[in-house]
Structures are given as C-alpha cells and as structure tokens.
Amino acid sequence: MSLIASNQIEKNRNEVEVSVDGETFKKEITAVYRKQVKKIRIPGFRPGKAPQSVVERMYGKEVFYEDAVKNLYPAALEKAIEESGLRIVPDKIDLDITEISEDGFTFKAVVTTYPEVKVEGYKGIEIETISDEVTDEKIDEEIEKARQRASSIQTVEDRPAKDGDITVIDFEGFVDGEAFEGGKGENYSLTLGSGSFIPGFEEQLIGHSTGEEFSINVTFPEDYQVDELAGEEAEFKITIHEIKERILPEFNEEFVQDVSETCNTIEDYRKEVSENLAEDLKKEKENDIDRKIAERLIEMIEADIPQAMYENKIDDMLKEFDFRLSMQGLDLDTYVKYTGLSAQEFRAQYAEEAEKRVKLRMSLEKIAENEGIEVSDEEIDAKFDEIAASQNMDVEKVKGIIPRIDIKTDLAVTKAMDFVKENAVYK
Prior knowledge:
With 427 residues, the chain is of the alpha+beta class. The chain has helices at 22-36, 52-59, 65-84, 136-149, 253-259, 266-300, 307-326, 332-339, 343-348, 351-370, 377-391, 395-401, 404-422; strands at 2-10, 13-21, 94-101, 104-112, 126-127, 152-156, 166-175, 178-191, 213-219, 233-247, 425-426. It folds into 3 domains: 2-112, Trigger factor ribosome-binding domain (Alpha-Beta Plaits); 152-247, Chitinase A, domain 3, CATH 3.10.50; 270-426, Trigger factor, C-terminal domain (Trigger factor, domain 2, Orthogonal Bundle), CATH 1.10.3120.10.
C-alpha cells in the first residue's frame, strides 16, 4: 500500500491517489472468502466446504473484490495521508476506484484538509482588567448576602405592600378590553422590585393591602418578545391574597456562630469573608482576562475554515451534553423532543459557540507553532497520570483511549494561552 500522488483540487480539499499491491489484495480476498464461505451453497459441496477457486469460477473472480476493497482502503488511505503530510479534517470522503484486478487496485479519495492559519498581533494584547481589591463595601455586600440566605419569611397583615415584599396575587391582562394569551396568573408569588414583570407593573402594587382588588395600567416595551404585544398599552386586574416580608437576622456574634464553622466574633468573621472574597475576586479577574484574551484571539485569526470543523465541534458539544443528561437518567433524543425543536434547530443553537471554540483552538495551535512551544514526554505522561487519577482508571487504559498526540496538542495549546497572557498589557 502506497501513495501515488496528492494534489490540491480546491481550497481545503485534496485528492489523494493510492495503490494497494496484489499480494495484500489477494490475502484480503482470501480472508473475505473464509468469512463468507459458510453462507455459500455450491452443488456437490457441503455448506462451507466449497474451495475458493470453485466459488470464483461459479460467481466470477471479482465476487470478493468489493468487500476486500472496503476492508483495505481505510488503512491504505490513512497510511497514504501520513506519507503525504496532510492534516485531515474528519469529513465525508469521496472515493473512486480507478483500477482493480487480482494484481491489486488503485483509488482516488478527496479529503478535507486543515486550513492555512495566520495569527498576528497576539503579543502585547491590551486588556482592561476588573478590580480584585477587597474593600469594606464588598465585605459588607457579602455579609448582606449571608443575612439574606439566613433570612426567614413571615406574613404581613398590618400594613400595605412595600418594595422588597413577596406578594401572592391573581392577575389578568387586557389589551383594548380583550384578554390576551399568557396574561393571566393565579396565586402567583411576586417579589416587588425583582424586575420579573414588565416595567411599571411591580411598582404599582406598592401601597396596596391584602384582599384589595384593583387595576393598573402599563405599556409593553417596544422590544417585547411577543410581537403582538410590543409597545401596546395594557390593563391588569389585580387581587392581592397575601403579603410576606423577609426578616433578616441581626448581624451579631450569634449570627456569626450560626453561619460559620470557625468564627466566633464579628472581627474574625469579617476576616474570613475578606479572605474568601479575595480568592473569589482573583478567580473572577483571571476568568475575565481569559475571556477577553480569547475574544481577541478569535478576532485575530485569518483562515478559511471548513464547515466540517464547526460541525465536528457541534457533535463534540452534543456528546458532552448527552453525557451530562445520562447522569440524570435522560438522553439527548428525549431532551430534544421536550424542547419542541427539530434536531437541526437544536444543533443550530450550538453553532455560534462551536465557531468560537474552533477559532480559539486554531489560534492557539498556530501561536504554539509560531513560538516553537514544546511539550516534553514527561509532561505528557504526567497529564495521563492526572487523567487516570481523576477518572479512577488504570493509566495504560487511558493511554489506549486518548491518542498521545491529542494530549500533546492540548498541553501546547494551554502553554500558548499562558504565553499570550504573560505578554499581554494589563490596564
């Protein structure tokens, strides 16, 4: 099996011509014969006992050619691609058998190739960073969140509703005196000031008491998601069944001891909150930097990217999602049916993110190439050990599942991202 020729026929499409020698072909023909002979019936021979030569005289010497070609061409094509130095994108392969005889066969295959990539300007990227300074104001905000989490709810009977209260209401909306679809609710729990409803709705409930029935008037936003309601004036009839308020615990040492396993005093708790906040803000800043750099690298890439690369990435993302669903006892097909979307419409939801991931990966691979970034065997082995430990698997089994080149490329991409971050200008 050998490469005859490799020629680019269009952008990102190459035609590879490959030959398979007669000896290899004949061996495979015999292997096909041995696999199929049990099903072949020849007069004068017991089932499965007819010699290969007899079968070929009976049905023609080409009887086993097709299956032999199917068995041989994938490995022959893979070897030829390796010889050609092409980097192939998984895609539909156009195959054409140009010559075939007992002395072997020749075929041409049109394959999709990895595009030429250009990335410039990645050194010295300017990044506006967010602050990771821990201030008293931020500490107070975290303490307030803790008080909110530890709060209790109680019914209010001696005053009207105010901002922040939880109201239990019935409502029905009308446009030009006609009730509209989706505009009615019963015993709906609405927190005033949450911004859950259209502008002006929640504010007009403030000052009303339990048991009141009243009407309010609002105008739907011009960009409202329901086209027939966008910009329309509406009347809502309201009944308040119940008003509830959130009671926050006092911030004192008793509260501190309730919410913290290690602190007894307010001073200790503020210190703990400060330390946790510092770690969270640091991670938030790092993630923000990663996101902004990724956006810039995606913008910088110059390449005619085959659609197959995007489709392959969508496939990967759907497999990941399917795996997460399986942990909940669901499967992707069932989930898609629940959404009411077609399979193609569901795939389309992933298209934008798939494009970003492909472009970012290609940018980083090119940067690794440009900068001569290397990955040692020790680093690859350490990554295999890390994966094996995280999955509780034997490391040799992991090596049999994940190609070594994939690990090497992943590590090079990570190093390339670190290189860009180290050379960025932060403001």
